[in-house]
Amino acid sequence: MNIDNIKSQFPIFSKKINGKSLVYLDSSNSSQKPMCVINRLDTFYKSEFSNIGRSIHSLSVNATNKFDETRMSVKKFINAGSKEEIIFTKNATESINLIASTFGQQNIKSGDEILITELEHHSNYVPWHYLRESKGAVIKFAPINEDGDIIISEFEKLITPKTKIIAVTHLSNVTGTIVPVKEIINIAHKKNIPVLVDGCQSAPHIKIDVKDLDCDFYAISCHKVYGPTGVGILYAKKDWLEKLPPYIGGGGMISEVTKEKVSYAQLPEKYEAGTMPTAEVVAFNESIKFMESIGIENLINHEKKLTNYALEKLRSINSVQLVGNPKNKAGVISFTIKGVHPHDIATILDEDGVAIRAGHHCCQILHKKLNLPATARASFGIYNTKDDIDILCEAIENCRKVFNLK
């Protein structure tokens, strides 16, 4: 796999930051975009643009077909059973809110329990909190150990006859923990409890097979998977989508409207009200093709080698403390430097052209558990190299010099 050739497909890397070559280590926040995606957006807006599913003129028919091609590509990419199980949203946050709202409307009453974990991003906590406020639900948090792994035995103990749904991340955006979601799903399904998986971080780093996982719901944000912003994916088993009510009402999701009643469209349109982000969905097809051209296994192997190299290098730097040591880890590394606030670390690294993220990464519950107000985070994409890691470590050494650390 020629990483230099892959990196050259991302025009952002021709840019200089403070006169230095850009080292982008913030892919967990949002990945950069290859030229094929950028060109597809440009072409669609220049010569193909139309709204979908309404008009019957040539532009609209073509746009509708291209939109549906992406749905078929997503189906194949995650191994869904049918295209009707693929719903386009504006991001994974909306995907999770869609399920929390519709499932909660039908299935949650006062005292019912929702089980999540201490690893969760706010996007997989706040929607359930709404049900706690509106329905009187109870949220339970499955604990993690000091390495950042879910304690499965403790997780299982938290399940009771009142547990109505389990929502769990596939990959932590702080510790890089790859959560054993298949094991969790098996435990849950033995008790007839549905499971939602937050796949925001996993989709760019792990081969996703929803049939093999047997999850009920799976949420993805396309902007983290080398795609455009403004597009999310909700996978849901067809039986659930047929049972649950619509989420947003309006044009495109109706079958018939009269003064007395409204009937809804078939799947997947039932959940896609209003004008969709057509260009972005069409362009996301190129993101999938880009990843498939590299090969998911090649991508996984590359990032695994890169992560191991980075861990070894960072552990050798005095005063750098790595956050978490999970059994299975992907390309997300959070760290602290003794005596230096993470925001200062990020600012100084930026002077060397190194882009990382600093803060609580929308995981305040996890940071409180770790007794840390904030961390610095380096996260990898297919375009990163060992040279990027070397530059990161040099920039950290420069940071240490600024603060006179030995």
Can you describe this structure?
This protein is α/β, with parallel strands linked by helices and 406 residues long. It has 2 domains: 3-26 and 295-402, Alpha-Beta Complex (Aspartate Aminotransferase, domain 1), CATH 3.90.1150; 38-292, Aspartate Aminotransferase, domain 2, CATH 3.40.640.10. 40% of the residues lie in helices and 17% in strands. It is built from 14 helices and 17 strands. It has helices spanning 3-7, 35-48, 58-78, 92-107, 126-135, 152-157, 181-190, 210-213, 238-243, 278-294, 296-315, 342-351, 364-369, 386-402, and strands at 16-17, 20-21, 23-24, 86-89, 113-117, 138-142, 163-169, 195-198, 217-221, 232-236, 254-257, 262-264, 320-322, 332-337, 354-355, 357-359, 375-379. A 7-stranded mixed β-sheet has the order 4-10-9-8-7-5-6, with helices on both faces. It has a 4-stranded antiparallel β-sheet with strand order 13-14-17-16, covered by helices on one side. The chain has a two-stranded antiparallel sheet with strand order 1-2. Strand 5 (113-117), helix 5 (126-135) and strand 6 (138-142) form a beta-alpha-beta unit. Helix 3 (58-78) crosses helix 10, helix 4 runs parallel beside helix 5 and helix 11 runs parallel beside helix 14 (386-402).
